[in-house]
Amino acid sequence: MASRFFQGGASDSEYSSSEEELLSSSDEEFVSSDEEQQQEEQDEDDLSDDSVFGNESDESDSDSDLDSGRARGPAYFLKKSTVPDSDDESSDDEDRKVVKSAKDKLMDEMKLSISTISSSKTTGDWVSVLSEFEKLAKNLVRAEQQNYGTPSVYIKAIVELDDDINDVSSDDKKKLNATVAKAFNAVRQRVKKSIREKQSLVDSFREDPDSFQKKESAVASTRETPTSETKPSSLNAELFTAYKAVAESRGKKNFDVQENIKTLEGLVSSATSPYESIIVYLMLIPLRFDTANNMTYMPVDQWDKTSEDINQLFTILEKNIGSYRVLETAEALDDVEVPPQPNAQGVREILGSVVSFVERLDDEFTRSLQVIDPHTTEYIDRLKYEQVIYSTIIRAQLYSEQVISQDAISSGTNEQIARIVSRRIDHIYFKKSALIKITEASAWSKQSTQSKIVAYSADDDSYTDRLMDVLSSVLYKQSNAIYRKKAMLCHIYYYAFNNKYFKARDMFLMSHLQSTIHTSDPVLQTLFNRALVQLGLCAFRNGLIQESFEALQEIAVSPRQRDLLGQSTQRFTNQTSVAEKQRVLPFHTHINLELIESVFLTSSLLIEIPQNAQLGSTVDSKRKQQPRNFRRFLDFHERQTFQGPPEGTRDFIMHAAKALQAGEWKKSVELLTSIKIWNLFSNSEAVKEMIKEKIQIEGLRTFLFQFKTFYSKLSLAKLSQLFELPESKVSAVVSKMIFNEEIAAGLDQVSNSVVFVQGVELTKLQELAISLAEKAQNLSDRNERFAATGGATISGALNGMDKRRRRTAGRA
């Protein structure tokens, strides 16, 4: 209805009639359908009679209307405001539409994607399935960010899609073209990943699909309908109004994150109940993380504020542990102003994930360490905050232990505990036991309760070993293989780094990870390489040279050494994928590459120099396998025109190898022990003593291999004096060589000497003669094969060319 301002041309009688209509009874307000139709026809006639250019009859009619006192309508340009047009009718229709909440709209989008996936997979259009599945995954992320939980329709969709993928036979796969096959493989990988992430929900669905789908509706129907009486009197209406405004505007265009953070900070101070504080913090903390979405890493001041908010949330939850709990399995609230109904224990469960907050805080901390230059003081200052995040992780673990049943923790069915325990292991597995004790003592000094999983004990010397054993056992019980593999590799790394080689080696061999690691995620492959390298370094520290060489060989000779160990020096940009960032570890967790090279080359020296001396001295020398890695380095060093004094680590080792070949073991020891890289070992002096002893033993073996043809008998006392070894040690080394048939000799206990058997070893002249005979035989065999296959044809061709040459010369 138009306003009276636009009906200024109407008569007083019309005004009076309108007033009578307003004062009429309710029965007169409803108009029958026939009257409405007649009124609409009359309005259409009036509209058809209107014209911009009126004729005389119109003027006369208007005059007669004025004279007769009939109400005059408004002017033409004002009549549009009084006559309902199509725009007014459409606006009325919009008013009558049902307004859906953001949650309902999101669910409709997910159901539409699921329907499209169902129809596309029926027709074999896997490209469309891939596109819709990506949309579905994005909507799931939005649902989890808004604390809506994981919809049951999503679980049903991925389970059915996984079954359909498994039903596709190998013959059908071969019939797919390249594009469809690529899309099919992508869908299969993403579905498997989604199932791994939601393994517990998928298992529940497969056990009883009907009850799983009806679970949410059944809970909603049995829940008591909240009324105004259930609202606590202390609830602040203005707080919830501002809270809803922030929640509804989040994610929309022109959303000012900083301004809304200030709003929520004000709501925190004005909260009058634990429930109000909890829901505000559950909104404030994600907004703080949103500030770093377009940055390489979260600024330190913002990270500090986020850490304070998370710890403040834990303080509120710990004080009200018997009244309110934030759980990932709680029901979503339809109205935030109405607190959830208490359960049988009188606890109100609020949907949220404090563990996710701690994980994101830890990720932001790691991102900053990946980006900051490790050779600056800024990196050291940032690394000091590791104690803060570790204390927060322990606090999250303690809270999770309080809200999760002990049976779920013991059986390993709860993934929340596994996630937080995995984060805790990430911060301690690469440290020495003494440093772990300091970190633990600082973290537990701020806690008021003990852990149910593993209690802290400052006086227990084996506490760190027990800590790693118990934390790893929690992950071993998980159904997700990723947790189990990660726990095993971190466990192996810890024992190897703390110089417990045999325990780490036994765990490594029993795990059989070396046969399946190529199918694992890149992060696990990097962790596997790190554990293998640390195992090799541990073997070297314990004097196990052969084991160290075998463990380090594959990594040490690879040109992609940095990438294999997750120690790339590239700088990240906004376009860098998450997978690439996860492969690179912070600098303080790196393994020194120069140390790896030094250990590998030293091990190669101790193995290959005696083998090189042994080659050519026995008849079956050609059958022996000889490593060629160190030999290539040595040949390159010998080919240099000018060989100056050693400068780098590799130069020292090459000079030591040449000295050992010449029998100058003392010079070799001096060169090797002067390498400063050994100081990186905590027991560097013990390592140097071990190197000296190994050089003495391998020098003795090299001497016997090289000069055994020049002796018929050699005194053990003389060898002991020459290499400064006890006679018992010399006797043991010689006896082992005789037992392994490395030398043809025997021990004379009467004269305390080693007696060599002449005639078995070859002299240098005999060795050269045999080599010449083998080359002549190879040349003869080659000529015979040449004559048998194509020699005759080539000979005929040569004869034909010779005849043509003669004819040409005769004509001339």
Please give a quick description of this structure:
With 812 residues, the chain is an all-alpha fold. It is built from 37 helices and five strands. It folds into five domains: 92 residues, no CATH class; 112 residues, no CATH class; 151 residues; 89 residues, no CATH class; 156 residues, no CATH class.
If you had to describe this structure to a student in words, what would you say it looks like?
The protein has 812 residues and is an all-alpha fold. It folds into five domains: 4-95, no CATH class; 103-214, no CATH class; 234-384; 503-591, no CATH class; 593-709 and 718-756, no CATH class. 65% of the residues lie in helices and 2% in strands. It has 37 helices and five strands. The strands form two sheets. A three-stranded antiparallel beta sheet has the order 3-5-4. A two-stranded parallel ribbon has the order 1-2. Strand 4 and strand 5 form a beta hairpin. Helix 14 (257-270) packs antiparallel against helix 15 (274-290). The relative contact order is 0.03. The model is unreliable at 1-95 and 217-235 (pLDDT under 50).
SS elements, strand count: 5
Which regions have little confidence, pLDDT < 50, spanning 5+ residues?
Answer: 1-95, 217-235
Q: How are the strands ordered across the major sheet?
A: 3-5-4
Which radius of gyration do the C-alpha atoms yield? 42 Å
What fraction, in percent, of the residue positions are helical? Answer: 55-70%
Strand content of the residues, in percent? under 5%
- Quick check: average pLDDT? 80
Q: Characterize the biggest β-sheet.
A: 3 strands, antiparallel
Structural class: mainly alpha
Alpha carbon gap, first and last residue: 123 Å
Q: What is the number of helical segments per DSSP (H or I, 4+ residues)?
A: 37
Overall geometry: globular
Tally of separate domains: 5
